[in-house]
Amino acid sequence: MVTYADTPRRHGTPAAWRCCLPSGFLAHGSSRDGSRTDTVADHLRSVAERAAEYAKAFGADGEARLAGLLHDIGKYGELFQMRLLGQAEHVDHWSAGAWLALQQFRHAGLAAALAVQGHHIGLQRIDKAALVGLKPTRWNSAMHDQWQLSEPDAGVLMRRFRDDALDLVPPNVSLYNPDEKKVAAMMDVRMLFSALVDADFIETEAHFKAIDSEKRYRDPGPTLDPVRALEQLFSYITRLTSESKGAAVVNQLRADILRACLEAADGPQGQYTLTAPTGSGKTLAMLAFALEHAAKHELRRVVMVIPYLNIIDQTAEVFRDVLQPVFGPEYVLEHHSLVGTRGEDDVRDASEDRQRELSENWDAPVIVTTSVQMLESLFANRPSACRKLHRLARSVILFDEVQTLRTDLAVPTLAALARLVERYGATVVFATASQPAFDHLGEHVKKWCSCGWQPSEIVPRELDLSIRARRTKVEWPDFDVPIEWEELADRLAGEDCVQVLCVVNLKRHALLLFQRLRERLSTDEGLFHVSTSMCPAHRRKVIEEVRQRLASNQCCRLVATQCVEAGVDLDFPMAFRAWGPLESIAQVAGRCNRNGRFQLGSVHVFIPRDDKYPSGDYRQAASVARQLFVTRGGQLDLDDPTLFQDYYRQLYAFARPEDRNQPLSEAIQLQDFVKVAELYRLIPDVAVNILVPYDDRAYQELCERVRRDGISLDWIRAARPHTIGVYRPKHDAPIRRWLEPVTVAAARPTEDWFVYLKREHYDYKTGLNPPGSMECLIG
Predict the structure, then answer these.
(1) Domain annotation covers residue 271
(2) Domain HD Cas3-type: where (predicted)?
(3) DSSP labels for 191-242?
(4) Residues of the domain holding 105
(5) pLDDT tens across 155-205, in order?
């Protein structure tokens, strides 16, 4: 390996390496067609101006320009130039720029320094010792994973920088304030980092795609036209209403909620909640709010955040139905990933897929994404996960089914979103039928972001939703009289349960009840099972068949887990629900008489003899619901919003979310970006993804492709509908015998992706049932 001592003279007469390069100091190798070279000076100027353009939306253009000018200044070093010739490796070209930002501008250069340092290796830590370690005279390769500086004398780099007619202008003000609350301060650094890394990606890509020495930029995504989009939405809603089979009272309720959203959209930017019953048209009403609000405040995009993968396709399809006929296929971007924000820097595609391009930095006016993709990005440190964040400035961010937010992540999450509102001109809306009392966490949120969390409710009380939305009668259980699965199966098989939904807490409960019910009916006709043991394509097919049978008044019995509760549009006349968290019971009630076709739907809550729950948080919420049930005399009114306020107050008092996840809180306090990214996980690392043999043809094609080419983002997108998640099995678990690890480059196996090899273990009714390994099934 070439080291400093081996390099030619660093200044003075031209060094020998310069004779081998076309035009002095180069930022990259030649473009793919060989027609263009990219000098360091040209690259720094281009990235600086683009980063400034991106950061202008939140008033940080000067600081972003500074970061852009410094991010690759280390490429003026001989060792980096030799790396371009293949004569050196493991060369650090980013730390010099980070050190110069600190040296030249001290605290005012701190955010730029962190962004420059992280543009290849990810954001690190705001720590004096770590930052002083960037100083070239203190450089120790052993402390920097054996990376060696491209040039140990920062003064040499600055002279070459100025020789190219470049100069540094101090920013008027820095985004980063060391006295700011920690979540807010870290968000400020990430936003600057986002503008820098996205600009760097775009400019580098344009260089390598050059044709005849001219950079070739990707086409920008369309811009939001909220007025025309709103007109399209109104036309769509009018058509839906004219075709609706729902009761007049339900249609009027939906119209009133839409009107309330439009009126609230005329208000100031800020934090909002939308509390409305299931089946009340929240999804389209939220979109109407966003478009009207964007038109009034000249906002740039709408981001719809959805908790579950099984809902995102449904919502994205609705948004495309509304907007695509006028604006084309690039107007609505659907972005999700089974691995959240993990691994995105390591998995690359050779394809130049337009959808992938737009997903990389959310360059679209309407985004539909998952909670995992959105929220983990707010706490990420990797360039690929963070590069889209600058697009959130001056956006409307809508969260559906927000009750699914993990309690132990609630306080830092609210703080990060509050900062987007406070500093970056975003508006955030939390929508659900069972609104969590997050405002009661407001003082705890202020520990991390000074503005706290105090949202305004969109729907006025005078609409009396709790009375008008009453479409079910709930039969509550006697906790002293639990029911056996056999007895429940007998009841569900009765003639009065021809169309019935039954939701239980665990996959094994759903499987057991389905089997007992199958035995009693002696047929599979009209009998269905839905759980996450089934891949999304399988679940989607079953749910569509269930809808068709309900619409045609055919026999339809569905046994399911919680995966049908949030966002799945079903309308049964009767529903059963095992005792669980109060919001889960309410969600099942929302799948009963959803469209008001009956005078009252019938909801039966029961206590199974095997009264087990999926996780500690879920079990805790079920326990709080039980306490509330007892204190209210054994009767609960699911349509009373004060019920959920009491429930969440008690849950937060019991669960103490502000004290949960101490390791994450400590990492935030230390402003350790690496550790925070590791610890902020909506889906724990214990989960792995398994390609299952549901659709033989798709399974065969995906197996052949990944065995031949290895894993890629394109392959993950294609595999997603045919994949299930399970807990990472122990090394001696029987399921290990039937798992083939998916490989990446150089045939290295991944730790998170597998192919399931035993086709006979995947049942056409119940999904994957690995013998002897049911404990690894999530939920």
Answers:
(1) yes
(2) 33-202
(3) HHHHHHHHHHHHHHHHHHT-BTTB--PPPPPPPP-HHHHHHHHHHHHHHHHH
(4) 4-208
(5) 999 999 999 999 999 888 899 999 999 999 999 999 999 999 999 999 999
